[in-house]
């Protein structure tokens, strides 16, 4: 019986696996938040706005978001080539949820960090 | 000027890094969703409800969520020892946001997967 119930639970929550494993990493969320709304940004701008991302990781993250249809990439035939990124409608629809997650984090992060540090002290004292 | 604006953006969105790098992995979210509401669940039950998680990863995920104060772990002095997990108030407050992410995924996943498969075909044809 437990097995049946379990199968239902898994089916119900299954999409979270896809969504989180695809763009649930912190860089994807940060890049989406940084492009945001109606903005159009260039590769180097994104790199400046997220200073601790490497060019390689930024490039890979943008490619993956583009493949998923969350951002648009537009290349202008100039020398040097100009490349601009913007959110698609699908990408824009994800922003409010990321914002809620950010607000939750802002509200709860101190508590979480304090709890973790107390937990680690208690573990060390064992 | 861009630099100044960039710094502000980073400060504003900074907590997302902590929250996502700590429990933004798919297993943490799945474990939180599986424990859910007022439920109290045992280690083996969780293992059955998430059949593709290894014992080692489940154990590590639960420890990390406990350290962050998102779940409570209760050990009963029985033989064999009984261990039960439940959500803390902080943990419960995260559930609606995870549910929204899941709903977003259910609504958009087909579109995302189709877009990705078309993108990959187009890349392969280059």
Assembly level: homodimer
Low-confidence stretches of chain A: 1-13
Helix and strand composition category of chain A? mainly alpha
Distance between the termini of chain A: 39 Å
Q: State the shape of chain A.
A: elongated
Helix content of chain A: 55-70%
How would you characterize the overall build of this protein?
Two copies of one chain form a homodimer. Residues 1-13 of chain A have low confidence and may be disordered. By secondary structure, the first copy, chain A, is mainly α. The first copy, chain A, has six helices and three strands. In chain A, helix 3 (26-35) crosses helix 5. The longest helix of chain A has 37 residues, at 89-125. Chains A and B meet through helix 1, helix 2, helix 3, helix 4 and helix 6 of A and helix 1, helix 2, helix 3, helix 4 and helix 6 of B.
What are the salient characteristics of this protein?
homodimer; 126 residues; mainly alpha; three-stranded antiparallel beta sheet; 6 helices; 11% strand; disordered N terminus
Reconstruct the topology from this structure.
The structure is a homodimer of 126-residue chains.
Chain A: H1 2-13, H2 15-23, H3 26-35, E1 41-42, H4 43-49, H5 55-67, E2 71-76, E3 82-87, H6 89-125
Antiparallel strand pairs in A: 1-3, 2-3
Helix pairs in contact in A: 3-5
